[in-house]
Amino acid sequence: MYAFVVAIQPELNPRFLINMKAFVAVTLATLLAVVYGADVDVCHSSVLTACDGREGGEVACNSLHGGFKHAERDMQSYVNSQLATSYDYLLLSTHFNSYQKHRPGFEKLFKELSDKAWDNAVNLIKKITQRGGVTNLNEKHEIPSTISRGKQPSLEVDELHSLALALDSEKKLAGDAQRIHRRISRLDKEEHYDPEVSHFIEEKFLEEQASTIRKLSGYANDLAKLVSVPDPSLSVYLFDEYLQKQ
Predict the structure, then answer these.
(1) Taking the model in full, what pTM does it have?
(2) Among residues 90, 228, 245, 246, which one has the least CA distance to residue 162?
(3) Could you list the residue range(s) of the whole structural domain that residue 168 is in?
(4) Could you give the number of structural domains in the chain?
(5) What's the pLDDT band for 62 if we cut at 50, 70, 90?
């Protein structure tokens, strides 16, 4: 009898286990359907339709979360602002690189500002994509650049006025970053709150722009004092040499 039980045990065990696994799987599926069936924003509840590109895919199976969607449009507008500002700085840089002006220090300053604004735009696009948004550079937002707002001033300006234009532009960019930060830091509206984007704006933009504003304001005030003489040509030349070494 003992031998008989040992002989048939190997045949019964696998079938029993298979049946048990099937029972557990069906039970779990039923429970999950009950739990998630009413929640259309959960990926699992619509996994068959949400993740294969059919209707509903943009609702559930994506990286959108937190309050990002409430700041997405402002962030895309901010991309446009950074790109337009980069272009304006590039024009200023080439203006001071001409044989008439020949100010290598000012050329270097505005080329660095142009590169910084371009890199900021790239980082913003990466962040928007990471958080599930889509950057559409063809979409029209508000007029982006301070230098280009309203009656566009000529970019063929003297050294002091170029610093003033750059300072105004950086202050506008800082204000735009503060508006995005304020929108996603509202603790009174949970759907707007997004600490990850808030930290990104603080670390990558607000701190850096505060430093740039301080530097440009110092340059503008120093140069304003240097040119307040009957013949400021030597003062401007020496100031340009100073900028080359920064």
Answers:
(1) 0.72
(2) 90
(3) 68-244
(4) 2
(5) confident
